[in-house]
Amino acid sequence: MPPPLPAESDAESAGERLTAEKLEALQAAQDDQESNDAVKDPEEDEDDDDEDEELYVVEKIVEHGDDFKDNPQKVMRYLIKWKGYEDEKDYTWESEANLEGAREILEAYWTKIGGKPLPSHQKKKRGRQSTGSQVEPAKKQKRGRKSLPAPEPDATPEPPVGYADVNPDTWKPPAPNDNAWDPLVMNVDTIEKDNNGELWAYLVWNEKNDDGRFNRSKARL
Fold first, then answer.
1. To which H or E segment does residue 198 belong?
2. Please, which residues have CB within 8 angstroms of residue 44's CB and are 6 or more apart in sequence?
3. Distance (Å, rounded) from C-alpha 121 to C-alpha 189?
């Protein structure tokens, strides 16, 4: 007859029950934690998102331009100073599309500079349209005049031998033919500047007076 099986001790039964109860408690605590995570307050999530996303506000537009290496299309950009950022290193170049939230500031900048700026390649194309081939009129060449050194303002030049100064109240220059003065004037004797800074020329005419000397008159230039 085989020996009888050993009876289960009370200590072993108590240990097994303690282990099962502990596992059930741990499982219940884990389920509660997962439930709490699933029912998290949405306002807390929004607060976390607001803290992660920083709001930038345009304070003013400093200047504009489109000459950038990464801008082959020549899209106009604006140098922005952000509110709360005083260091120029924090300024950024932004396109018009990125400034929809600061439209009033952008339009005020356009008014300040006289209108919305055009890209550089459009400025080069602007200009007067040609209406056909036009021949520019020949420019009239100015006749040169020999300049003579002017004497001191107070020094009145003495007429050379063979010339006599005329009385401007009684003498009148001869009338030219076809507005040609060259045949009537022998030469320009000298040029002087008066105290008022005006230049006067002494003209020697081919016309002689009663003494047989050539007449010399004074004319303002």
1. none
2. none
3. 60
In DSSP notation, 119-137 reads: PHHHHHH-SPPP-S--PPP
* Separation CA 104–CA 204 (nearest Å): 75
* Pair type for strands 214-220 and 163-165: parallel
pLDDT in tens, 19-68: 666 677 777 777 777 666 555 555 655 555 555 567 889 999 999 988 88
- Which residues have CB under 8 Å from 68's CB, separation 6+? 77, 93
Q: Report the chain's C-alpha Rg in angstroms.
A: 52
Q: pTM of the prediction?
A: 0.35
User: Which residue(s) pair with 81 in the sheet?
Assistant: 60
Distance from C-alpha of 150 to C-alpha of 157, rounded to nearest angstrom: 10
16, 39, 62, 109, 215 from 169: Cα distances, Å = 149, 118, 70, 68, 14
